[in-house]
Design brief:
The chain is built from three helices and no strands. It is mainly alpha-helical. It is elongated, with a radius of gyration of 15 Å.
Length: about 70
C-alpha cells in the first residue's frame, strides 16, 4: 500500500530533472527512494564504438542517476 508518482522527463536535461524533483516534492514530499528506468546502450563490435554514442549512453544511463542520488 505505497504511493507512487510517474513523471515523464528526459533525465539528460537538467531542466526536466529540476521540474521532476519539484513535482515530486510538491506531491509526495522529499523522496526516500529513487528508481531509475532510463537506459540506453550502443551495441557494436569492439573497436567500432563511436565516442558520440558512448557519451550519449552515459548522459542517459549513468550521470543522471549519480546526480539525482546527490540531491
Amino acid at each position: 500500500g505505497g504511493v507512487a508518482l510517474a513523471v515523464q522527463a528526459d533525465v539528460s536535461h537538467d531542466g526536466d530533472v529540476d521540474r521532476m524533483l519539484a513535482l515530486v516534492g510538491e506531491e509526495l514530499g522529499a523522496p526516500t527512494i529513487l528508481v531509475s528506468n532510463a537506459a540506453m546502450g550502443v551495441f557494436r563490435q569492439p573497436g567500432e564504438f563511436d565516442l558520440r554514442g558512448v557519451r550519449r549512453t552515459f548522459e542517459i544511463s549513468a550521470w543522471p542517476l549519480l546526480g539525482l542520488a546527490g540531491r
